[in-house]
Amino acid sequence: MAAPDASRVPAWVDPMLAKADGGRLRSGPEWTYEYKLDGYRAAMRIAPDGTTVLTSRNNIDFTDEFAELAGVLAPALDGRAAYLDGEVVVYGEDGRIDFELMQERRGRYVRHQTAGRDKPFDDLPVRFLAFDLLRLGDQTLLTTPYDERRRLLAGLPMPDPYRVSVVRAVTFDELAADRRTPDDFLKHAAAAGYEGVVAKLRNSAYVPGQRPDSWLKHPLIRTQEVIICGWRPGQRSFTGTLGGLLLGAHDPETGDLVYIGDVGTGFSQAARADLQAQLEALERRTHPFVTMPPREDTVRARWVEPRLVGEIVYRQFTRAGRVRHTAWRGLRHDKKPGDVVAPRAVPREPAPAPPPSGQRITVQAGNRRLTLSNLDKVLYPADGFTKGEVINYYSRVAPVLLPHLAGRPVTFIRYPDGVTGEKWFEKNVPNGAPSWLRTVRLPSTGSRGGGDSIDYALLDDLPALVWAANMAALELHVPQWTVDGGTDRLVFDLDPGPGTTIVECARVAERLHDILVADGLTPYAKTSGSKGMQLYCGIRTDDPAAPSAYAKRLAQRLARETPESVTAVMAKAQRTGRVFIDWSQNNPAKTTVAPYSLRGRDHPTVSTPVTWPEVRACEHVSHLRFTAEEVLDRLDDHGDLLAGLCDDAVPLP
Predict the structure, then answer these.
(1) Has this prediction a pTM greater than 0.70?
(2) Which residue of 4, 44, 467, 548 shows the fewest CB atoms closer than 10 Å?
(3) pLDDT tens digit string along 505-535?
């Protein structure tokens, strides 16, 4: 029998993949834990004579790109072949693995190759971190238990640990001996800047190409591979270059290419230019998805052939199939479009089945028992969002909503037949309101000075809020004053005219922010839940007319400075192509939609407090549009972003 070719590297093996653990890090003596790395998955295949080939998870040859890694392990193998599974990484100046630097290195390597330069490419040092051993000598280790594979891997000498090393692994028992837990290991991974932790069963085999339950990943950040299906040209400071990407992935059930959202942040200037050049060469006339994306997301879209794969960071994947709060991480040349599958929305706890149509049920809300009806009635037909879901939303958002309603007379906009039916404004408490509901009688003008009176509802507690929601009072509007405390808020209502959107409102909001801060005020921002947004400041004043006068001065100032984009005049003829700064919302007779109120639009959108970084990053209407479900998720991350409004109150300038 002929001797094996000493230069023949082991055959490539489709890599084993880790399955998401559903948010529960596994625990027990049967588990070992490794750091989840943030680089390029790669196989290092070494022939008996030391010939080394590096390949990606899709069998793309990486050897030339990472030439400094080739041959490093050969002296330690004593003429044996070897197959190591691992990750190629780059470190930043802070000593942490930096995926963005890896992306920059990749771009420079491509330009180096394109230019045909002869000198070696050693622009940024890389390191191969091995976490598994699939072959050593003539012995294949695929069916060998993980513990034994790791023992053999750890036993290999590392001649140059700066270039090739082994990922740290620790068993449950080793953690327990140190009086530590898997959660402690996870916290250490977070503090050290790792992407997460992978739990591996100690007796498990290596299963090529599969994603079994024996490898479970627990990410500290959510990342998603995406297919670039289109792009939008940039605006303002990004005019002339790429502004954002339109993303796709394959539906996990049908395999269809579906739209999953967009990304407009996280790009360096070089990345924007490089991506634009690549995408312009792939342009096509129509979108590549199985169904048309939402019209508002396709404004100015330029479609491309779905060939490039990238990676994003995101915070949430919604029930509607959209990634939210995204940031770009870079292209993934090691991935194929066919491998990109959309994430699955994390299901909420199932709601109780609604009663039959028209049936009444009695529930406990706080210290009151309320009778609710028609919970299965659809109020938002486009989403199938029912009255029961409206009541559920207001019940869950109550802890942050009620402080913004307390002591303020509420004007309701009711939609008893849903948002496609008739609506009406209601100030007077309706007949049949519960006797325990707090009310206040005020002049009908709202100016507290003569005329007929109106009995307003005061929604100060959960039972009152649930009662209002059961009336299909989707929208809650309040003034900038309280019954007992007087005027305590200043508001600027930014209303986009025809040809403008919330994107233009965000630009005006940035300008107002700087003026208000210079005047000693602390501005807070929220969306209107419709087309525009509002800015609030906590103030102290004894003059009810002063807030309108101050707001009008600022609105007129911005209109003078940029008359082409801002108007302080209410006349609709003046609004086309401009943002109207409605300073009159500070009039004591006026009301503004309350923070966290639903809106009576096609979808259950919410007037949502937002951060200033979110305002500054807004480049598309979808970036500042939030539904009830998304707002509840935001509360887990942010709490009430308007919580400091009263604490930051200062005398009105």
Answers:
(1) no
(2) 4
(3) 999 999 999 999 999 999 999 999 999 999 9
